[in-house]
Every structure is written in C-alpha cells, then in structure tokens.
Amino acid sequence: MALVRNNSINGREPVLSPRSLTSPRGLTSPRPLAVQPTPEPVRPLANFPPSIWANRFISFSLDNSELEAYANAHEEPKESVRSLITDTTIDASAKLKLIYSVHRLGLSYLYPEEIDAELDQLFKKIDLHHYEQVDLYTISVQFQVFRHHGYKLSSDIFKKFKDTTTGTFTDEVTKDVKGMLSLYESAHLRLHGEEILDEALVFTEAQLKKIVSTLEGDLANQVNQVLKRPFHTGMPMVEARLYFNTHEEDVSCYESIVKLAKVHFNYLQLQQKEELRIVSQWWKDMEFQTSVPYIRDRVPEIYLWILGLYFEPYYSRARIIATKITLFLVVLDDTYDAYATIDEIRAITDAINRWEMSAIDLLPEYIKPFYRILLNEYDDLEKEYSKDGRAFSVHASKQAFQEIARGYLEEAEWLHNGYVATFPEYMKNGLITSAYNVISKSALVGMGAIADEEALAWYETHPKILKASELISRLQDDVMTFQFERKRGQSATGVDAYIKEYNVSEEVAIKDLMKMIENAWKDINEGCLKPTEVSVALLTPILNLARMIDVVYKFDDGFTFPGKTLKDYITLLFVTPAPSLESC
C-alpha cells in the first residue's frame, strides 16, 4: 500500500480570499451581512480506480460435502507420499529431488517432522568432495532443498563451475539451460559474503535473458516464469500452481505426488473461495463503499495479500481476521492520504488513540461509521480470544493500529508544513507507516497456540529478520509509488528523503535503495537458517510478507492499479478451476 501523505500544496487547507466588511467609502452605514454557508474544504482526492471485481465473489456457495470429499480423498495419497519421504531404499539424490518437488508444490507443511528428519540425516553425511562429480542442475536443486529448510549448505559447491584462470563461469554452464535456471533460483538464497552467488545471479540472469527467445515448450515457460519472479520471492500458493503446470516431467515421477497435489489444490480453492466470500460479504454489509467511497476498494486483493502469508487450511480463521484488520488499514490510509484535512486527521488520530466510543462525537460525520465498526470488531475479537487466554494478541494488534495512526499523522504534519524529512527521520516513521507491524501482529491473532506470549515478546524485540522484512515493505513500496505520489503533489517518500539527505540524483537514490532491499533479503535468508530463534511457523509469515511486497510492487504499484499481477493471481486461484482429478 502506498502510505505517504499529501500536503498543503494540493489543497488540504483552502485559502480564502480576504473580503472587505465595510463600504469602501466609509460614509454609509454597513448593510447586514448575509450568512455565508461554510465552504466544503478542498480535499486531496486521488480518484483511485474502482474495484475490477465488484461483488463477484459474494455469490459463491460452498458445498460442504464436496469439501469433505476432497478432505477424505486427501488421506490416501498423503500417506503414500509420507512413505516415499521416509523410504530408506531411495538414494540421497532421488530423495532430495522428491523433497524438492514436495516443497515446490506447497506440500511441505504436511510432513515437517519427516522432512526435517531426512534432511538432518542427509546433511550430516554430506561430503563436499562428492559434488565434484555432480552436474549443475542436481547441485542447485540440492542446495535449494537444504537452504529452504534451514540447512546452511556451503555455496562453495558452485566453485567448480568457474574458470580458475578468468574467474568467470565456464562455457559448459552457458550450455546447460536447466542448470543455469536452477543456479539462478539458488542465487536468491544467498547470504552476506557469498560472492559466488552474487556473481551467479548477475551471470545467469543475463544469459537466460539472452537465450529465452530461442527456447520452446516447458523449458521456455520455466525460464520466462523464473525471470519474471523467482520462486523464493513469489507467493507460495501461486508458485505451487505454476510449478505444477510447467514442471510436468519433474512432478510426474511419482503418481501419489501428482494425485495429492491435485486434491490439495481443489480443497484449498474451495476453502479459500469461501473465506473470500465471507470477507466480501462483511465488507458489503459494513457499507464502506457508501460511507467512504473515496478509498481503494480492494477486498480480493487484500485477501490475496493475507493468503500469501499463510495458506495452510488450519489458518482459515486467522486469514479472515487479518484480512478485516488490513482492510481497516486501507480505509485509514486512504482517508489520511486522499480525503481528510489536517484538522480532521488530528481528530481521527486522537479518537483512535483514545479508543472509546464516546470519542466518536469529535469526528467528522463521514468517518463515524468506520470508527464504530473498528471498535466493535476489536471488541468482538477480544471477547472471543479472552475465553482461551489469548486476548494479548488482540491487544497487540490494537496497539499497532494506534501506532500507525500516529505515524500517519506525523507524515501528514510534515507535509502540511512543507517539510521533507531527513532520511533517518523518514525511515524511523516510515517503518511504522509501512503497515508491516499491524499486519504481522494481526496475523498472529488467529494462529493459535504457536503464537503465544513468548512469541509476541520475541516480535517486540524487533529482531533482525523482522527489521529486514519491514525495510523491504517500506522501500519497495516507495520505489514503485513515488512518481504517482509526486503527480498528486506528494513529496514525503523514501526516494525524495534520500535525494535530499545525500544530495544525489533520482537514479542514484533508486539504485541505493534497491541495494538496501537486496541486503535485507540476505538478512531474511540468514534469519531462516538453523538454529532459528523461534519456530519456523512464526518465521514463515515474516518471510512471506516480504515476498508479497515483491509480488505487489516489483513492477509497479500493483495494489492501487491491480489490473496486472494481482488480477492474474486472483484469476488463477479463485476463478480458474483447479487441476482436474479425472486422470488420477
């Protein structure tokens, strides 16, 4: 979400021309003045594009018997795949390739203990000399399997593919398209100091772009897909569907995996369409489209965003809660950015920090329905989660919401006063207004026992991986939205603050900010390696939120203008039928 604010340049505060109140001659008695109506303030309307989906997803009707049938059909292939993962007769190379396919298809969460046990055993037996005789594709796949599951397999295994004389990758590498493709994927898992992977990323990207037009069939689709978005920075659910569609040769090795993937896709699609129906109906019932018509109407897009954090079936309630709270954020964001005057922003911020229904009387009429719904929704959540002693998670979400309101006000005050913040000032407040803290803490509310008070305390320490994901959220947004904001008279983006702070050109500023994003990804990769500070279940939403920022903002402001990437993703997951089970 674009989270920067507007200023007085575009008319937050209307300038009224002074008028003479007496006769210019000063000789005749002044006539009584007619009562003038209070002028409507000039508002910084953004005229956001309307929803491209309208109420399409409200009409969905879930057939519970169909959902149950998929759940039952799920069991047999799930156990067959479990047997494959633990089969001691499968050699190490085949076992790692199997786990790779299971992971790429979004099925790893079904076998956390089995996969970890197998990888732990295989990792302990690794002899780097063994890799001297292994091809690039196989090495790259195994590297990805270990790194994705937290095992720090050394990047030195790729050294043999470099010419010792020139220091560049060998000609053999350029001839191995599948190997280069897998090396390119591997390079996105790099850590600080892994120069060989830095070089591999640049080299493979250039080579793949050079040859992609000469390729055909699945290989051409795979290269195009990965160049657009590598697996590691993509949305897990979408990546699973795309992998199934374009890697038939890899997937079809085991019939049980194909069957499980198909049943899994169909089950998840039904469940997720029902969740989308629920939040869409709620949005319509709350009448936000009528009370705050100036906002971005993006219910399917926000649900997709939250689905990107966790797609597992047991997080259904969590997704609904987090989607509603994130939609509240959209209302608040767009009210501050594209409608309210500075005085109204101050009043709204004060009311949110007071968090009591009596404060509603101090608010402008148009925002009163939103304030009432906001407080009622949180009150219902608090009652619901107090029953099992989990109200602390609701309180954390509420406090984060209050904090972001204060952050929005800070930016509004800067802009109202024509002040461009220093880059450190901007980043301190910008990490708050990125919405990351609200979304990540709200995501914990419905996650259950794993998101206990100890987990929340870890979040509050602001660990390195969390800071990195926040930074990506803030700067990726800024780099892709600053031009649109400028057209609207905006100035307080990270790009502008950086230009001012370091007296550099726009081009240099963007290059430096992208480098910061690149380094933040390395911090995230490092934070996911064993031993982790907390459960992987808590780290995954942090990683996935950074991924969704890349999905939404890599090429443009995909949230404000969702006609490209997000439209394609929503179509794939909720409109296009999941793979048919007929051939199973």
Automatic annotation (TrEMBL):
GO terms for biological process: diterpenoid biosynthetic process. The lineage of its organism: Eukaryota, Viridiplantae, Streptophyta, Embryophyta, Tracheophyta. InterPro entries: Isoprenoid_synthase_dom_sf (IPR008949), Terpene_cyclase-like_1_C (IPR034741), Terpene_cyclase_plant_C1 (IPR044814), Terpene_synth_N (IPR001906), Terpene_synth_N_sf (IPR036965), Terpene_synthase-like (IPR050148), Terpene_synthase_metal-bd (IPR005630), Terpenoid_cyclase/PrenylTrfase (IPR008930). Its EC number is 4.2.3.23. Pathway: Secondary metabolite biosynthesis; terpenoid biosynthesis. It catalyses: (2E,6E)-farnesyl diphosphate = (+)-(R)-germacrene A + diphosphate. Keywords: Lyase, Magnesium, Metal-binding. This is germacrene-A synthase. GO terms for molecular function: germacrene-A synthase activity; magnesium ion binding. It comes from the Eukaryota. It holds the Pfam family Terpene_synth. Residues 53-227 form the Terpene synthase N-terminal domain.
